[in-house]
Amino acid sequence: MQIATPYLMFLGDVPDRLAAKTAYGISDWRPEWCIGQIRMPHCAADLGIPDLTLAEAVEKGCRTMVVGVVNAGGTLPKHWVSEIVASLEAGLDVASGLHVRLGSIPEIAEAARANGRQLHDVRHSDETFDTGKGTKRPGLRLLTVGTDCSAGKKYAALALERGMRARGFDADFRATGQTGVFISGRGVAIDAVVADFISGAVEWIAPAADPEHWDLIEGQGSLFHPSFAGVSLGLLHGAQPDAFVICHEPTRTTMRGVQHPLPSIADVIALTVTCGRLTNPKIRPVGIAVNTQALDEAEARRLLDVLAEEHDLPATDPVRFGVEAIVDRIAVEFPGEA
């Protein structure tokens, strides 16, 4: 799938920042690709880049409009269809990470055909996957896991790729969600894979490698989330991680989209180790990544100190404070791998 850059980021009329996390992820990690954004009335997200009309975006050289939103079920609201049709008529391709295929909507399919434009459904892969085998394979792997969905697992994995490479590790980010695929240009949206093949798809994403190579695998959902635990478990078994980092958003009391209470970090560590031992008996935690965006710096540092002492693990906000402490722990736990 070759998606033409640069992008115009479509935010629709999403109700909050998290509902546009695909757009934020692309803008944060590939800012040079993002010319501007297009928002509908009452949109509560703002990437901090120019608001453009379709004509202005085309004039500035934009080639693809990215539907940079997420929602429960991955549906495309009916009142967005006319916006997508207009972008195709303006001469832009359209790419989406939603579950629904753009071409399954007659108006969009016809507009793409009539205007000679491309539709890219990043969440859907043409690859055929085997079932997972759980056989130990060469190479080292780290998985980010969470106390909840949308807790920073992608950002932690990307920050670790950057930090580990800077320290001389042979490390690559492996995308398992639509945003990560947009950012890295490769990967599979695991939540769109048929359940029987989830672990096999992850084995395909992070195959046998040099014994000192690290695959940094983007986690999805949470083992405790009633909506997404199935995906999280299949991902854990297929990743066969040697190490994992727990990702946490400290201001939540219930998990996103449901009324179930947020699990503790200790609970996540214990269940991840218990389940992960099926495919890697040596699995172990190496750090805690906390999204402290809602806290001031003093509060954030106090919380990180408390968590580090409580769990005997380095705790940091990967975006705010970097990942050096976690990389230090990896170097100690896996000597000679850098």
UniProtKB/TrEMBL annotation:
Residues 47-124 form the D-glutamate N-acetyltransferase-like N-terminal domain. InterPro entries: DgcN-like (IPR011669), DgcN-like_C (IPR035086), DgcN-like_N (IPR035402), P-loop_NTPase (IPR027417). Signal peptide: none annotated. It holds the Pfam family DUF1611_N. Residues 131-327 form the D-glutamate N-acetyltransferase-like C-terminal domain. It comes from the Bacteria. This is EBNA-1 nuclear protein.
